[in-house]
Specification:
heterotrimer, A mainly alpha, B mainly alpha, C mainly alpha, C: mainly alpha, 0% strand, globular
Chain lengths: 406, 173, 172
């Protein structure tokens, strides 16, 4: 509950050197990770579509991302004359910087079992294997994702062009909507760990696989978080922001050269960071069995493996699912995910408190779930009322021709 | 606050990364702007109209509702942290906090505040969109006069259907 | 302590300059962005005071929701790119007087209620005590004991806000 022990015994040059080193390592992980991730996505999607994918630059095309980056650097940077220049220049920063900052709160390793607190010794100082451990860790995550909204919103607005504006208005409404679902599913995790710090959340899941929040919260907040994270990342099937068929490239249509590259990088950095956050919050972070050798290496290994699974799932979704329609997207976010995670949160809270207070367990469960069912029925009823008021008949949503009446 | 120093370092690194990338590009990339390059992208069409100035109020509504939800969620975090110390009292307090909110949320949904589908009432336009359309094409078939008798049975029924459909399709929509 | 004072000076300076730019800039979107700078600096000041939860709330609610709403409103209705000339009106003197009045009231309230009291320094305090005093848990304890009634009233306030939003945005 006390934050990184690095700062516990005063502040000197060694501490400063360690924290700068940790930040540089975190920075390098994100940069190298994003280079790998872009290659990985292109290669896997190519495989799923029976193509070869990048195979020219370097072995297995591994150098493709670097080659693309270098090409982008040498490209002319076009600035549309109708653009709002200062904001146009500012927007890439607002996309990239939060992507880097979010990764700082992810513990990428450490031993949490057997009385260990996840600390490692560096030059005689104890520290944790994450760049920073702010006491409000998960709120920091939410804050960064709300800053990232600005990057997209301002990029679209400042371009002074119609497709970027449309794309960014859509994106803002979408990201803002799913941020609520994201926040609510995180509260369930905080409820079990009793702390906002990511380190404490990981420590609380260290015991066995049944302590992992995905199982301890009965999977619902996990699913909600994953769906909301996908929408927050604007990745398929929620990539309406850059729906090519309608909006050319969405909010970054007017961006070219490495300035466009920054948005591209930010997108993939966010994918990596979100996967890492999912692993941290729900899958125990570095938790896993130690088979042989030093346990420290196994922690990082398990973390990396879990991370790769989620990276693969994100790519898989992209290759598999068609895009949602905007009204479906909003309905899913507001009318399904938010009430579901809110209700589930209260059920988990009731069970947790009931266990302490010695309430009758089955009775608590039955009571909580019947209340949940009643609320859900009320929700369905409300949606039915809305539909009736709108005057939609049985085929209301299916009719292709609409005509204003009244 | 020491916990936030690494964040400051990371912030500096991230900003430095963007600055460096943009600066390298500025030094290495050509800069030959023309009017066509600077024009807003319109898929090759010369832009004639200003970008849309007005958007559906629904987008604004979502942002407003989000503020309410955000405040709601932010109050759940302190409760989640201390809920075990507070015990049943805290649970009832938070339920009392959420119930009015949930009721107004229900009202809002019932009011259609979060509907994004077609806003206006949908009405079938008859034969143009109805299920009968498949059997009764709205295209008037011409040039069959006097040839029906010469056709085999099966084709004749199609022709009859086509001519009746032609009448229906002739009604202007 | 010196580092903290320097950080405070920088943040206060940034906040003040950005606040001046909010009212002097002739572009509405730029004004909103300067407002973000002001709010972020204030959030950083909360971090300096070890009130991290409040800082997170500041960023989440003010920057993440309210200014987004401002910008959204501007973008959806009148987002003219470039300078607008009709942003000024002849109420600037009244506004100045109101601002000075508010400053006076706030200063009076602060001096009246705290006087020469000083916050206990953060230097010698261990991190456990700090967390117990100012952490998220402490905020939770305060909400559910001293401020329980205001907390429940907020729920009703939010209800009113939701209803108001719908009524305002209704199609008729």
């Amino acid at each position: 509950m006390t934050g990184d022990p690095l700062f516990a015994d005063g502040f000197d040059w060694v501490v400063l050197a360690i924290l700068v080193a940790k930040a540089v390592i975190g920075f390098t992980i994100v940069v190298v990770g994003v280079i790998f991730m872009i290659w990985f996505e292109r290669k896997v999607v190519a495989d799923m579509q029976n193509r070869i994918g990048p195979n020219r630059a370097g072995r297995w095309g591994l150098g493709q991302t670097l080659a693309d980056g270098i090409k982008l650097i040498f490209k002319e940077d076009l600035k549309p004359d109708r653009a709002d220049k200062p904001v146009f220049r500012l927007a890439p920063y607002l996309s990239v910087v939060p992507a880097f900052l979010t990764f700082t709160i992810v513990p990428i390793g450490g031993v949490f079992t057997g009385g260990n607190d996840g600390g490692v010794e560096l030059f005689g100082r104890r520290t944790w294997m994450q760049v920073a451990d702010p006491p409000v860790g998960v709120l920091f995550l939410l804050a960064m994702s709300s800053i990232a909204v600005y990057g997209i919103m301002l990029a679209g607005w400042s371009s002074g062009s119609k497709y970027p504006l449309l794309g960014s208005v859509r994106a803002t409404a979408q990201m803002v909507s799913y941020e609520a679902a994201l926040g609510l599913s995180v509260v369930a995790v905080v409820l079990l760990s009793g702390s906002l710090s990511t380190h404490d959340i990981v420590a609380a899941q260290a015991g066995s696989i049944f302590d992992w929040n995905v199982i301890a919260t009965a999977a619902v907040p996990f699913v909600v978080f994953c769906v909301a994270a996908t929408a927050e990342l604007n990745r398929p099937p929620f990539d309406l922001v850059e729906a090519e068929q309608e909006l050319v490239g969405g909010f970054h249509t007017e961006y070219s050269s490495i300035r466009f590259g920054m948005f591209y990088l930010a997108e993939f950095m966010n994918t990596i960071t979100m996967s890492a956050i999912i692993v941290t919050l729900f899958l125990g972070g570095p938790a896993g069995p130690v088979l042989f050798g030093p346990p420290l290496i196994w922690g990082t290994l398990w973390f990396t493996l879990k991370l790769l699974v989620f990276l693969f799932i994100f790519v898989w979704l992209r290759a598999t699912l068609p895009r949602y329609r905007y009204d479906q997207l909003m309905d899913l976010g507001w009318k399904r995910l938010i009430p579901l995670s809110l209700g589930w949160l209260l059920v988990i809270g009731a069970i947790s408190i009931g266990r302490d207070a010695g309430w009758n367990r089955p009775l608590t469960l039955v009571g909580a779930f019947s209340l949940g069912v009643i609320s859900w029925a009320a929700l369905i009823g409300a949606m039915r009322v809305a539909k009736l008021r709108r005057g939609g008949d049985e085929f209301g949503e299916l009719s292709t021709a609409t005509e204003r009446v009244g | 606050m020491d916990q936030y120093l690494p964040l400051v370092v990371m912030f500096v690194l991230a900003v430095g990364f963007v600055v460096l990338s943009l600066l390298t590009s500025k030094l290495l990339a050509p800069d030959r702007p023309t009017q066509a390059k600077q024009a807003p992208y319109e898929c090759g069409i010369v832009p004639t109209r200003e970008p849309a100035r007005r958007f559906p109020v629904r987008f604004y509504l979502v942002a407003m509702i989000f503020i309410v939800f955000d405040i709601e969620i932010i109050f759940l975090f302190p409760w989640a942290v201390v809920h075990r110390e507070l015990g049943a009292f805290g649970l009832w307090a938070i339920v009392a906090f959420i119930v009015p909110f949930f009721l107004s949320f229900l009202w809002e949904i019932a009011e259609g505040g979060l509907d994004w589908g077609p806003l206006a009432r949908s009405r079938s336009l008859g034969v143009l969109t109805g299920p009968e359309r498949a059997t009764a094409p709205s295209v008037r078939v011409v040039g069959l006069e006097g040839r029906l008798a010469a056709r085999p049975e099966g084709r004749a029924t199609v022709a009859v259907g086509a001519s009746s459909g032609g009448d229906a399709g002739g009604v202007g929509h | 302590m010196i580092a903290q004072n320097i950080a405070f000076a920088i943040l206060a300076l940034v906040a003040t300059l950005a606040a001046l730019r909010v009212v002097t800039t002739r572009n509405v979107v730029h004004a909103a962005l300067y407002l973000v700078v002001v709010l972020a600096s204030v959030g950083a000041l909360y971090v300096l005071l070890a009130a991290e939860f409040v800082a997170a709330v500041q960023i989440l609610i003010y920057i993440g929701a309210i200014v987004v709403l401002f910008l959204f409103g501007i973008m959806l209705t009148r987002a003219t790119i470039g300078v607008e000339s009709d942003l000024d009106n002849d109420q600037r003197w009244i506004a100045a007087i109101t601002g000075l009045f508010l400053l006076g009231v706030l200063t009076f309230v602060l001096v009246e209620s705290f006087g020469d009291d000083q916050l206990p320094g953060l230097a010698g305090v261990s991190r456990e005590e700090l967390t117990a005093q100012r952490g998220t848990g402490a905020v939770g304890d305060a909400i559910f004991s001293t401020y329980l009634v205001p907390f429940e009233v907020i729920s009703v306030l939010l209800l009113a806000a939701l209803v108001g939003a719908i009524v305002l945005a209704r199609r008729d």
